[in-house]
UniProtKB/TrEMBL annotation:
InterPro entries: Biofilm_reg_signaling, EAL_dom, EAL_sf, GGDEF_dom, Nucleotide_cyclase, PAS, PAS-like_dom_sf, PAS_4. Pfam families: EAL (PF00563), GGDEF (PF00990), PAS_4 (PF08448). Keywords: Membrane, Transmembrane, Transmembrane helix. This is EAL domain-containing protein. Residues 369-502 form the GGDEF domain. The chain crosses the membrane at residues 35-57, 63-83, 104-123, 129-148, 155-172. PROSITE patterns: EAL, GGDEF. Residues 511-761 form the EAL domain. The keyword Nucleotide-binding does not apply. The keyword Secreted does not apply.
Amino acid sequence: MAVERPDTEAYGTGGSPDGHAAVGQLLLTRRMRDFTTGATLSLLPALGSIVALVYTFRDQVDLAVLIGWATVQLVLIAVYVVFDSILDRESPSLGELRRHWRRFVLLQWLGSLAWAGIFPYLAPVAHGLDAVVLAVVAIAVLCGVLLVHRTAPSAAIFHVVVMAISITAAIWTGTGMAGLPALILLALFVIALLGSTREQERQIVEWLDAEMNRREATDTVRLLLNDYEEHSSDWLWTVDEAGNLRNVAERFAMAAEKPAETLEGKPLIDMFMADANRAIIARHLSERSRFHDLVLKLRINGEMRYWKLSARPRDDGQISGVARDVTSDRMIEERVAFMAHYDNLTGLANRYLFNERLRAALDQNERVRNIALFYLDLDDFKAVNDTRGHLMGDRLLREVGKRLEQEVRGQDLVARLGGDEFAILVETRSGAGMLIERAHSFLAAIRDPFEIDGQIYRVSGSVGIARSSDGSCDAEELMRRADLALFAAKNKGRDTLALYDQSIDLAARERREIEIDLREAVARGQLNLHYQPVIDLQSGSVVGYEALLRWYHPKRGIIGPADFLEVAEETGLIVPIGEWSIRQAFAETAKWEGHFRIAINLSPTQVRSPHLVKVIAQSLHAHGIAPERVEFEITEHVLMQESSISMGNLQKLRELGSRIALDDFGIGYSSLSYLRRFPFDRIKIDKDFVDGVESSADNQAIVSSITKLAEALGMATTAEGVETRDQLGLLRRLGCQEAQGYLICEPVPGENFATADAVDAAMRGGAVSGILAYRRTREASVKQSPRRAS
């Protein structure tokens, strides 16, 4: 077995040879220090354990063997002490450290073997108190790895393995199968010790990494300081009692880029531009008092420069000082100040400066009612970044910022708050009408095409407006109102605006209350599922049920999904609610009579969940439902997001055996393209086309086209929102296979469909009577003319 190389095995080997030596020496020094500390601390317990074993078992085994074993241990300890004493701790070389390290590790291996050999030897004769002493010493020696071997991972692992074998043999020798609990406990100890060894090694490597980084940083600072001293721009100057330069130094003249004789006798103060610091220095010169680190501006060959001056009076009446060119520092300070207050991309005010200006404007009580705030956000700007790249997106943002600045007055403030969100702060007495006109001008400015690198780009935006005159408010409240108005504008659609009013605030508060209540709805058992049957238009029989979520709110009553699912989607609550719905639907329908399809809606967020397929598979197995009986309905929004996770989950559901249906077909922007991108099992015709189909030729043509397209693609069709008998009959003639709607049965709790009698009772309670008669008529027709019915 080769001795480990601790200076390379736990740290990178890249870099120069000098770097290798430095890293290796640092790591070995740390290991040696920790090793010797642990070994020294363990000497007394080790000697005590040796004495205890010799004393306890002196009359039970061959004393010569015991004495020989103890002698070996003492020799190993003595050798360690000798090796430790000859190590040069002041400035050991890397080679010397490596040699000592190999010796120490070898000693530890030998010591481990010596300890491991004694316990199986003594175990057969250990009884009562003797067994307790042997067990205590064995466990102490085993755990000694934490103290002695913590910086030597190979020695630690060797020690733990060897001791584990030794103690196992001792336990088996002394107790046989009765010692199985002790062996299990020993295994747990071994696992913990090996894990602790690994963790200690990781900490040592992390310490080395941090130490090397610290040293590199120190060297860098020292190098920079040396470079500064070599290239310092300090120089001396002297003025007489009148403040005129005397004995002009060559370096001072070179800094001023003028001949020394030209500067001789000239007033020092005349070199600098008038400002507050120049007046202060003039006063100090006239009073012959000292000053320190005052920065003055001057022009040298037309270029603005900054000098920092310090001085003190001399006994001969003159004043001597030192000057330093701090132009670079000053430019950096100005750049930092600019970056702290202005957006680096557009040059507009940033959020910090915007907040400061807004608070300052609202703090002036006489003008507090004259503040108007516009929040502007580009519509679907992410598409520009995704299709054209972030560099083009950045250029477009700069152009938008320029146009917005052209639409405001000099005293107004345009700021970029981040991303594609801008704010315009205006002080005006204008009423709501004029503010709306200004918002329209902002929208018109960004609506005009942008030409960048010969390419034409068109974007639009949404604007939210808030006024400080809309009730007393501070800066945070005004920004909140503008944000609410922007949110309301975006809900209207693209390229529009909204002015804050109380109704927007009430809607936001109500939305927030819904969110808070919704977080507790599942835990409080307020969510329930209603089911709506789906019938076959040829036979009239029930072929499936769609599970529809309802919220039984204690104050608001029964709330439909349209009133809370959007909140659930935006807050991420849709995932736990959706998982509950899946489990609940399977748990309820598993108890019903008959063989029917179960339809469950999946939101875009649910489909993106990495746990979706696992939850569904577990629920199907738990309730004994065949996957082919389940149909999951998705909308076009799932495919619009072009998520690989979503497509992967849909494919896995198909592989599981379940079916996938495209819900609300026909109302999206590119429904036909989605049929090509994913092989759906069913198309659900949106109720907008079913409504009025009996009187609208356009709707009839659309429904007929959809059914023919679905038939060509091998997909089934289901019409939603059927409310009249005429619609039902016409849909059947147009080729639609299934239907659901209030004519058939409104969504009701699951117990209404648990039995055949319950189904009949539920469907008699539909909005329009007679659906059962229709079903029976169709069934009779099928029996008499099966070929025509098919």
